[in-house]
Design brief:
about 40% helix; two-stranded antiparallel sheet; 9 strands; alpha/beta
């Protein structure tokens, strides 16, 4: 019996040209089902709030495209490792990952950017349920319009530089998002870009000719490789949701 499955999800699209292909494997799902409850027990702070953020978002009609639970925990652990107090997120969705990062420490404050006002309101519902409205600021608008304003605030001393920046938005603009995040992240801070492998499509030069998202991530890798401000790596990941990967960079 093969463990490997590919399915096409109707209604979920990577680009106007291509359907979204989900790769899953029984072993990946089984490992997550075993390890996650042990390493994130119900007694964990924000356990209920994180589950509510996921379920409420789905009930309100948002797509199930937030980070996987283990990835959310990884973001929280990474914030703890670097002692993050100021976090930037590009792409809020239902604030699932936002709450994970805010849960890492009572000292963390998150600024998160969301394009869609209706989605932002669902995120705010989830944030209020978690009791984190005083530490999470949701700003609505196009990220490429908002990021220069945040940078100006930092330059003028109105905001602190970010310790950790998490980019989980459209991949067409992955490189400009990364550029702005680096400008606003402190030295030795981290910039994390999600969904950079896309089931191996990162390496598919032919697919890049017709898929704007694949072109975007390839352009990002090439650009980041030439960026002397950072040292970066991509790790491929598998799990209950998909085969993908992330780029992580440290700001020099």
């Amino acid at each position: 019996m093969s463990h490997h499955n590919e399915t096409v999800e109707p209604g979920v699209s990577d680009s106007p040209e291509e359907p979204y292909i989900v790769e899953q494997d029984d072993r990946w799902t089984a490992v997550d089902a075993f390890q996650f409850p042990h390493l994130n027990p119900k007694s964990s702070p924000y356990h209920d709030a994180i589950n509510h953020a996921f379920s409420n978002s789905i009930e309100k009609g948002l797509e199930d495209i937030s980070v996987a639970p283990s990835q959310g925990k990884f973001l929280s652990v990474q914030c703890q490792i670097i002692g993050a107090k100021h976090v930037l997120e590009i792409g809020t969705l239902g604030a699932y990952s936002t709450i994970w990062m805010a849960s890492a420490s009572p000292e963390i404050r998150v600024v998160t950017l969301e394009l869609d006002a209706k989605i932002a309101e669902i995120a705010r519902e989830n944030i209020r349920y978690a009791g984190l409205e005083d530490r999470i600021e949701v700003i609505v608008g196009a990220a490429l319009d908002l990021l220069p304003k945040l940078a100006d605030d930092i330059q003028q001393g109105k905001r602190e530089r970010f310790d950790f920046s998490f980019i989980d938005a459209d991949k067409v603009n992955a490189l400009p998002y990364f550029d702005w995040a680096v400008k606003m992240t402190r030295p030795r801070g981290v910039v994390y870009v999600d969904n950079m492998v896309r089931k191996g499509l990162l390496a598919d030069e032919e697919r890049a000719k017709t898929d704007a998202n694949v072109r975007g991530i390839r352009k990002a890798v090439e650009g980041i490789g030439n960026d002397t401000r950072v040292d970066a790596v991509i790790l491929q990941t598998v799990g209950e949701k998909n085969y993908d990967g992330f780029l992580m960079a440290i700001v020099k």
